[in-house]
Design goal:
With 375 residues, the chain is α+β, with helices and mostly antiparallel strands. It is built from 14 helices and 15 strands.
């Protein structure tokens, strides 16, 4: 069993889909504070100054829709934390709206981590809840009637033992050699459709010099360091309109991760997760210090005036697609994948204008609506 703890901040949404899937039990931890539209966050920077930002909070409905979108019917446990705070969840509304969506039905719990006694803190079999029992039941539900062929069990154990030795990644060819030795049939499919999807390893064909990342937590911690709100780095990137250099990455990573090859692996990991895209791709240099990147979630929120001016008197076709849910990572991933068709001034946090020869398209997400304008 693998445990993943996700940051709820928008910048991390693109990484969630690597782990949020059907073969999982979900814990939606919330407090009454996070139902407010915004959270104010103030930190002290290295130069002694302070910076305050207002971050959008997503309601419990957003996260339930999000888990259903990526998890499709997985067991869901809604857990209110900090139960000493005032405010309660309208459970009847949630039950009615999501009846039959999650399997088994949603369970509700309240916990207080400051309370040591299992009888009172909501984790054990005491007065206020049975969260641990519910998690075990969810695990049994998704694993019912499941068996693993011996060769698959052995290749999984081999990869885990290599990680325990301190290896963060191994060459793909080494995996194939071991799989052949263990008589694993269709090793590429087993890697991509089982080992990767169950969180044992991270692998994308052709990425990271075709290496398999054994310790995903190792890579994710390095990436989260870049976007940690308690550091000055994300504000520096935000002030640079979402643009950052390889030099900045090296400066952040060099203390804990001094190896330059590791820096390149982290960069490729960020790009494959759609956390950023590379600028000046046609003039790419192998020297990381000279390379530049852009993070869509740290670009300005406002649609550039030049975009409105461009479409003001232009004959065009307009489409609007409305859905009950569009998650934050959708437009972020779309921007990363199509940025090569746009200029930097034509990209903003929720949209992009792209061009191919003499054809133009503007794609923008507003709430749960996708707007597309073509010319």
């Amino acid at each position: 069993m693998n445990f993943w703890d996700f940051g709820g901040q928008d910048i991390y949404h693109a990484t969630h889909r690597l782990f949020m899937q059907q073969n999982a039990v979900y814990i939606l931890a919330w407090s009454i504070e996070t139902e407010k539209p915004f959270t104010e966050h103030t930190i002290k920077l290295d130069n002694g100054s302070t910076v305050t930002r207002h971050y959008k909070n997503h309601s419990i409905r957003y996260w339930l829709e999000y888990a259903n979108y990526l998890g499709k019917g997985s067991p869901m446990n809604v857990v209110q934390t900090k139960i000493g705070n005032e405010g309660k969840l309208d459970k009847s509304f949630v039950r009615e709206k999501y009846l039959g969506v999650f399997k088994p039905e949603i369970t509700f719990h309240s916990v207080e981590s400051n309370e040591d006694s299992d009888f009172y803190n909501g984790y054990g079999n005491g007065r206020d809840g049975k969260l641990l029992d519910s998690l075990l039941s969810g695990g049994a539900y998704i694993k019912r009637d499941e068996t693993i062929a011996e060769p698959l069990f052995k290749i999984r154990e081999y990869l885990r033992k290599e990680q325990e030795k301190g290896r963060e990644a191994i060459p793909y060819k080494e995996y194939l050699k071991k799989a052949k030795e263990l008589k694993v049939h269709h090793p590429k499919e087993i890697l991509e459709n089982w080992l990767f999807k169950t969180g044992v390893v991270y692998y994308r064909s052709g990425k990271f010099d075709n290496k398999i990342i054994l310790d995903q937590g190792w890579a994710i911690k390095a990436i989260y360091t870049i976007f940690d709100r308690n550091r000055g780095t994300p504000y520096e990137i935000e002030n640079s309109k979402g643009i950052f250099s390889g030099s900045l990455l090296i400066q952040v990573w060099k203390g804990k991760y001094p190896d330059r090859k590791t820096h390149l692996l982290f960069v490729n990991f960020m790009k494959s997760c759609d956390l950023c895209f590379e600028i000046d791709i046609g003039k790419r240099t192998p020297i990381l210090e000279e390379r530049r990147f852009m993070a869509p979630q740290l670009i300005t929120k406002e649609r550039p005036i030049v975009i409105d001016d461009f479409w003001a008197d232009k004959e065009s076709i307009f489409f609007r697609y409305s859905d009950k849910f569009i998650h934050e990572g959708f437009i972020q991933s779309f921007i990363v994948k199509t940025a090569y068709l746009a200029t930097l001034r034509d990209i903003w946090r929720n949209g992009i204008q792209i061009r191919e020869i003499d054809k133009f398209a503007m794609i923008e997400v507003q709430g749960y609506e996708l707007n597309i304008r073509l010319s």
